[in-house]
Each structure stands twice: as structure tokens, then as C-alpha cells.
Amino acid sequence: MSERSEDKPNAGPLRRLLRRGEAAPALARSEPKRSWLTRLTAGLSRSSTAISRGVADIFAKRKLDAAALDDLEDVLIQADLGLGAATRIREALARGRYDKAIEPSEVKAILADEVERILLPAARPLVIDAAKKPFVVLVVGVNGSGKTTTIGKLAAKFAAAGLKTTLAAGDTFRAAAIEQLEIWAARAGAEIVARKQGDDAAGLAFEALTRARAAGADVLLIDTAGRLQNRAELMSELEKIVRVLKKVDAEAPHATLLALDATVGQNALSQVELFGRAAGVTGLVMTKLDGTARGGILVAIAEKFGLPVHFIGVGEGVDDLEPFAARDFAEAIAGVEREER
Predict the structure, then answer these.
(1) Residues 107 and 138 in one domain
(2) Which of 28-32, 77-81, 289-293, 318-322 is predicted with the least confidence, judged by mean pLDDT?
(3) DSSP labels, 30-69
(4) pTM of the entire predicted model
(5) Where in the sequence is the domain holding 275, given as residue range(s)?
(6) For residue 239, which of 42, 50, 149, 258 sits 20 to 30 Å off, Cα-Cα?
(7) Which CATH number characterizes residue 79's domain?
(8) E-assigned strand segments in the chain
């Protein structure tokens, strides 16, 4: 595995919050903002390149007219931003500029502004409420969406923030998932509750919450088996896990995160809808943005569902999963150069 651990920052202020029983603040970035922006820009390069080329082809030597706007709308829809966002961007661009020459750089700046407006309501951090101990985070998603790796990265970040963390290897269908989570737990210095492959996932979740509570853990991260959102029997099993957790803590899980693979494009919309029904999804983690030209799907999801997007991932390292910031993402996907900012 190529992930690497990161140094622990001073966690004193967070520990003081925990002693007072107050809500812990959102996790801070592990590296300076510019370093993250560099990684984010590189990760979204496939998505931004497609948009930038389309914008340049349309507006390099052409006035802004109906045909140009139609072409731009097509480019944005092909980038998976969705019809609603494409229409909104089209209208913003046409406002006061119709039948006038416009530079591609100006188009990209307007595009970034409109994408940011769409994303801002969704850019909400994951806040660990120290009054709920342990704070139970259930992670769900389809096969290959990056659930186990996401849990490992979050465990490392929580540990770096001074939180006592327990992991539950709830993907009992895959032996590799159990082993992978054991490695992540060792790296993060976290406790792990695991059983042999094929054991009952709901029973493991019950045991994990009971043990985490007894151990005084601050956070419990629960992995689950990947399941197709259109398989009713598998989604029912997920509902069972939620019911069992509530037998230990009526409010658990306190957060249910859906891990979404950005490379699936429009299919992510149905995943959000159906996992939301089955598991009561409270927030999203978008993974693999560095492997797709369809990163605009995050914009379509934010506009349609309004769910918080807590984290986005642009690589394999711990520091390649970071809290979501609307402006950073909007500028990166629009291809706005630093000197244009």
C-alpha cells in the first residue's frame, strides 16, 4: 500500500474541549493550504482539462451568442455537472455579456463563481460531538468506492487530533478488508474489533460499540461490506446494522457517511438516493477524484441533494483526503490559474 502516515500536531486544545464535553471542531488540514491546493488542482486536472479545452474552443475567437452558450452547456453536461448547474452557469454568463467578445479566462472565472455558489451549502465539516461518546460513524457504499481506505485515513486524522479511536471491521465478506483495516488501525494506534470472514456484520457492530463505550473511545468508525444500491436484500442487511447499533445507543450512528467513487459519474446520484433511504446518510466523502474526467458529478450531487460533503480524496496518501472547501474545488475544476485569482 502506498499510503503514508503523518506527524501528529499538538492536540492540546482538542483534548481540553473533550474534557469540557463540548463539540470538537472540524479537523484541520494536516499541511499548509497551498500544498493541498496543489494536490487538489493536480487531482482534478482530468476534469478541468476537459472543461478548459471546451471553453477555449468555444470562446477563443467568438462572441457570446446563443450557439456559444449551447456549446458551453454541452461541455458542462459532458463533465457531469448536471443540467441544473449547466443552465445556471449559462444564465450567469449571458447576463450583460450577450453578443460581446469574452475571453476564456473570464468564462472560467464566472464558471468558478457559480460552481462555488452551488457548493457552498454542502461544504460543511464533520464535527465530532464529544458529548456523544463514542461518536459513532458508519461508513457505507458500493463495492470499490474506497470505504475501508477512507476509514483508515480518517482514523489517522482522528488519532492525530488526539481522539481515542476504535475501528470496526464490518466488511466481513472480504478477508482483505479486515486485514487492510488491521493495518490502518496499527498505523493510527487505534483499537480494532474484528471477527473472521463470513461472521454476522450486525453482531460485530453491536460488539464494537459495546467495547468502544467500555474503553472510553471518543470515536467509533464502522466499516461495512460493499453493496449494490439496487439489491434489496443487501440494503436490508445495512438497515439491520443500524437497528442493532440503536440497541446500544438510541442515537447511533451519529453520522453515516456515504463513500462515493467519482469515476462512476451519474451512477453516484442513484447511490446517494438509495443509500440515503436505507441508512439515513448524513454526509458524503467523494473519493478517486484524481482518476476521472467526471469530477463535476460532485456539483450535480450538491445541487440535487444538499447533503454535506465532508471530505474529498485525490490520491492514496493520508494527506490526500481533506475537508471539502467549495472555493478550492470550484477554482480547480474550472481551471482557474493562480495568477487569475
Answers:
(1) no
(2) 28-32
(3) SS-HHHHHHHHHHHTHHHHHHHHHHHHHHHTT-B--HHHH
(4) 0.86
(5) 124-324
(6) 149
(7) 1.20.120.140
(8) 135-140, 165-168, 191-193, 219-222, 255-261, 283-287, 309-313, 321-323
